[in-house]
Design goal:
Blueprint: H1 3-13, E1 19-22, H2 27-35, H3 43-54, E2 63-68, H4 70-73, H5 83-89, E3 93-97, E4 101-104, E5 112-115, H6 120-129, E6 134-141, H7 150-169, E7 173-180, H8 188-208, E8 217-218, H9 235-249, E9 256-259, H10 266-282, E10 288-293, H11 295-305, H12 312-330, H13 341-345
The chain binds 1,3-dihydroxyacetonephosphate (13P).
Length: 346
Amino acid sequence: MDINALAQTAQALVAPAKGILAADESSGTIKRRFDSISVESTEQNRRDYREMLFTAEGGENYVSGVILYDETIRQNGAEGAPLVEGLQSRGIIPGIKVDTGAMPLAGSPGELVTEGLDGLRPRLAEYYELGARFAKWRAVITIGSGIPSAKCIDANAHGLARYASLSQEAGLVPIVEPEVLIDGDHTIEADQEITEWTLREVYAALALYDVALEGTLLKPNMVTSGSTASNRAPATEVAVRTVDAFMRSVPAAVPGIVFLSGGQPDDEATLNMHEIASRGMAVNAPWQLSYSFGRGLQALPLNTWLGDPANVPAAQKAYLHRCKLTSAARQGAYSADMEKDLAASN
Ligand code: 13P
């Protein structure tokens, strides 16, 4: 394992002003996204949609890396060259989702455990050959009546540690993603408590498995009220509780924390990113605070594209708009007024 190479990749992924585009929707998830715009989820439509995002001129100013799905890392663009080459030529680092999904945890109704460790070593070696330099594994923690259980957090932390260790062995930076889901009516206090508990267990497991933290990134949820909670906490409180939670539980050797958007409306995710980054700067947080958004960057371009090639320029413009705002937010330089820029430029 070349820890210097891993650390360099991890740092490049959280370079100033930049973050990650998560475009690794599984077959089921991308079908749901396409259903929402009445587009059939064929291999070519998935390719055309993702190629539209990857080739947006100037995207590389805001996006350091893209997380791909297994199909996409093997796909050629419309002109015949691999999509991966297009990303590399723009200086964007290709990454890959390597878990095989969250499945029901035996004996724990309502809880999930992420699978994908079987055969992972050769898969990681192949992804490295295909150009990937980082790998993502998503674990899911659900807040509900009597859950999460210690068993669920332990099982998911174990999976994350095993995958992280195998990724580093293969020369891939693990993006460790323990997502405490926003679904439900829980309070922000409960979310903070469960997030801290989860992170403590995850870092204990990473230590047990000798994962070199300098060559990793963390991809967590922001600490927020549940999506259906009444009186949801404002962005300023989200920021304080999020940064407090991470200061208590994430070692300083981790180069960066890249937040998922987790189904928040894109403007809400961007505002929260701005407040969190500002708070991080105010308290001298030891890690870069950045983004690894899926829906937060894609909702607007997806709804502009609508599967019509004629909409590609407008969809790319919409994508770049979200990238620019989220990059500003990551630097603590976003204001809600900037949301109007896209309409103004049309
Ligand atoms: P969202 O930003 O849409 O939550 O997606 C990020 C991701 O990669 C989830 O695994």
